[in-house]
Specification:
This protein is α/β, with parallel strands linked by helices. Helices cover 42% and strands 14% of the residues. The chain is built from 28 helices and 18 strands. The radius of gyration is 36 Å and the shape is elongated.
Length: 753
């Protein structure tokens, strides 16, 4: 390992040659591609001349296309790739004057799969810049002196070296690293949670497929492979691990693909493209699922936090509406401002068949911010996605992480463990682990990253092992003191303080019924100048002078005149009724006022149509809300609800109710028409009992409209771990203030002395 570190340090030090034309955060643009090229050069150098000769021979025969020639060359020399340019790093240095052109030819000479990855680095631009500033020869010379031959550094060791360099250069460029780089200790925690206690990993000779739909530079894939297949420390070195990924950022894709190239693995499993899909394929980008026919045993991802999915909206919405649960997004769609849950739905669609259906099942670890835990109202997209996952018993655990862990955001984050192969003891349950205090203060900040999860190195405790143990123990009410957690964030903190760190809940505990609580409409009525003016602005009254004719001007004028006459007649009747309401007199029963209006207009011989009469009896014209008035009722005698008094209550699901609930998910075909009849058979009495106990004692006239019932799911993580702490006694606060005042006076005396 020391030799490996030394090689990494040498490459790291070469970057100093770039000082001037490049700022330190830009060094990776040169050093990462050059490291890849040097490793490939060392791999190919022993067979380079023979490869070029054989390639020329096959081309001269004119019997095979380019793809066939590539396969024949690779098979003959047992290589995953080859180069036909005839150049090596040492040969390039032999012609300094043509170094830039020859280096470009060297890159262009790689076989198609390798070249596709290397081209995403856009290294030709850096070659021009290096040549322009007279840095190219010195940099290539220094890199050529680094021996990365497989006989000296094995594939897996080279993978570790490359990953370490990627991490170091990305941390140096921390202002943008968070877009595609997850802190290594977070990845290690996710990998440990996913694999350490899963029997599938330990099957000898097992083919294990691992997938990351937002793979970035490939850190999660690499750490997964390392934990399972490392010859010395792996859980199952005899396993055959296959890595799959998809990434839409060109540089990140190139780095991830290069990592596989360096380790001699199949680079075709890493796809360049947008996982969600825009419906508009461009160039060599794959649009949508890059592995449509694959299913996976394990999946990990760190999708973008709070990023809009407008570019993918049309395509995703079309898939949701056309295919429903036969596609990827059956349960629903989140709001446009955060598409993180779409990636989880995509991953669930890629799961191996569940053991209950004859398959091996799958496990997922995904990092979210707090939004997917609770955002969205009952019946909305986010809530329905949570409902579908929880009611189908796929959510196994949520682990809350410390804040200030990531390079470009200081927010709290959460790891979700989702699976269709829960062990028996976890069925029907969800574990919440509060790891927010499992943090170690860093000596030097990297962007917004000021903390790390301790991994047992550099004097830090092994928080990863602690959290993994909490997960494995599956304790319903586990606690730890601050001293046992071993955090150095606040040395003044009470080390004996006990904190809740693990809780277990039933799936039903996260569901609730959102019921509409109605209260009756109560109005008083009067005819006054003020209320007449309000009525005159009502659309029903104003429509009387709006003609329905479009082209016949004469007819239009006639209809307008008729309308004005009707308006005048109505106002005359109303003004004639004003005398009954002098001195603030009001009618507090709508039925009585209705009769008075009818009598007055019949006596005057003025026709009052249904629309106008409804406007007069509605709030905002002659009616004003009055809590002391009689209840307004419809023709059947039922109280009419007052929309301004409408409220909602979130009612916990009934004890012992079976999941999934008998309620369909809303789609294009049943939008606004989801039947709640079957659900109400199970919950109506429960809702009425809740209303009686929690609402009617305070609002005796309230009732619930069962037709408006909705089902919601949320995971109130912080609420479950919150523990009330009483404020300090006033005497102690006063004593502190007095002591501070005394100190201030002492300092003032020293200043004025």
């Amino acid at each position: 390992m020391n030799s490996l570190k030394n090689q990494g340090d040498v490459i790291w030090s070469i970057a100093n040659l770039l000082r001037g034309p490049y700022r330190p955060p830009q060094y990776r643009r040169v050093m990462i591609p050059l490291t890849v090229l040097r490793r490939l050069d060392c791999v190919l150098e022993p067979t380079q001349a023979k490869v070029v000769e054989y390639h020329k021979k096959l081309k001269a025969e004119k019997k095979y296309d380019a793809a066939t020639i590539e396969k024949m060359v690779n098979n003959k020399f047992k290589l995953p790739f080859h180069n036909t340019s005839g150049f090596t790093f040492h040969k390039l240095l032999g012609d300094p004057d043509k170094l830039a052109a020859n280096l470009a030819r060297f890159i262009g000479g790689f076989s198609p799969r390798a070249r596709k990855i290397l081209e995403k680095f856009k290294f030709e631009e850096e070659i021009e810049k290096l040549e322009e500033h007279n840095r190219l020869f010195e940099v290539i010379k220094a890199v050529a002196a680094v021996d990365l031959h497989p006989d000296r550094i094995s594939n897996i060791a080279m993978g570790y070296l490359f990953e370490d360099l990627v991490r170091r250069f990305n941390e140096q460029a921390n202002e943008e690293a968070g877009d595609h780089f997850t802190p290594r200790e977070v990845i290690r925690l996710m990998v440990n949670l996913l694999f350490a206690h899963d029997d599938l990993v330990f099957q000898e000779g097992k083919v294990i497929k691992i997938y990351d739909p937002t793979c970035g530079t490939g850190g999660m894939l690499s750490e997964s492979e390392k934990l399972i297949a490392d010859p010395e420390t792996g859980l199952n070195p005899q396993a055959h691990v296959k890595l799959f990924g998809q990434e839409y950022n060109p540089e990140s894709y190139a780095i991830c693909g290069s990592d596989l190239l360096i380790k001699g693995e199949d680079v075709s499993h890493i796809v360049f493209g947008d996982t969600l899909g825009t419906g508009k394929a461009k160039g060599d980008m794959v649009d949508g699922d890059g592995h449509p026919n694959e299913r996976f045993h394990f999946m990990l991802a760190n999708p973008p936090f709070g990023v809009e999915w407008k570019p993918e909206k049309d395509n995703v919405t079309r898939e949701h509406e056309q295919f429903g649960f036969k596609g990827r997004f059956g349960p629903g769609l989140p709001r446009i401002n955060d598409g993180a849950l779409l990636f989880l739905l995509h991953m669930i669609s890629k799961m191996e068949t569940a053991p209950t259906k004859g398959g091996e099942g799958a496990r997922i670890a995904i990092v979210f911010n707090g939004s997917p835990l609770f955002s969205g109202d009952a019946g909305g997209g986010e809530s329905n996605i949570r409902r579908w996952i929880i009611e189908n018993d796929m959510l196994e655990a949520v682990i809350g992480l410390p804040d200030q862990l990531f390079y470009n955001t200081g927010i709290y984050t959460y790891v979700w463990i989702v699976t269709n192969r829960k062990p028996k003891k976890r069925k029907g349950k969800v574990q919440l682990i509060n790891g927010t205090d499992f943090a170690w203060k860093m000596k030097k900040s990297l962007g917004d990253k000021r903390k790390r999860i301790g991994d047992g190195t550099d004097g830090a405790p092994d928080h990863i092992a602690m959290l993994t143990r909490l997960y494995a123990d599956f304790a319903g009410d586990a606690r730890k003191t601050v001293a046992k957690i071993q955090t150095n964030i606040d040395p003044e903190r009470d080390q004996a303080k006990s904190l809740p760190v693990s809780k277990v809940f039933r799936n039903q505990d996260f569901g609730y019924l959102k019921i509409a609580v109605e209260r009756p409409l109560r109005l008083n009525f009067a005819i006054t100048d003020e209320r007449i003016e309000r009525f005159r602005t009502n659309s029903a009254f104003q429509d009387l002078v709006v003609s329905r004719k479009r082209k016949d001007k004469k007819k239009i004028e006639e209809e307008v005149l008729e309308g004005e006459a009707a308006q005048a007649a109505i106002l005359k009747v109303l003004r004639g009724m004003k005398s009954s309401y002098v001195g603030g007199s009001v009618v507090k029963d709508r039925a009585i006022f209705d009769g008075l209006l009818t009598d007055a207009f019949e006596t005057a011989g003025v026709i009052l149509d249904v629309k106008l009469k409804a406007a007069m009896l509605a709030p905002g014209a002659f009616g004003e809300r009055d809590g002391t008035a009689e209840i307004c009722r419809d023709r059947k005698g039922n109280p009419e609800p007052d929309s301004t008094l409408r409220d909602t209550e979130n009612v916990p699901l009934p004890e012992g109710i079976a999941l999934p609930l008998p309620l369909d998910y809303e789609g294009k075909k049943n939008k606004g028409k989801v039947s709640v009849e079957q659900l109400l058979l199970l919950v109506r009495d429960h809702c009425e009992a809740y209303l009686k106990a929690e609402v009617l004692p305070y609002r005796p006239d309230a009732w619930t409209d069962h037709g408006k019932i909705k089902v919601g799911y949320e995971i109130p993580f912080n609420r479950h771990f919150y523990e009330y702490e009483p404020p300090r006694p006033l005497e102690d606060i006063e004593a502190d203030i007095a002591a501070l005042e005394k100190d201030i006076l002492t300092m003032l005396k020293d200043v004025t002395a």
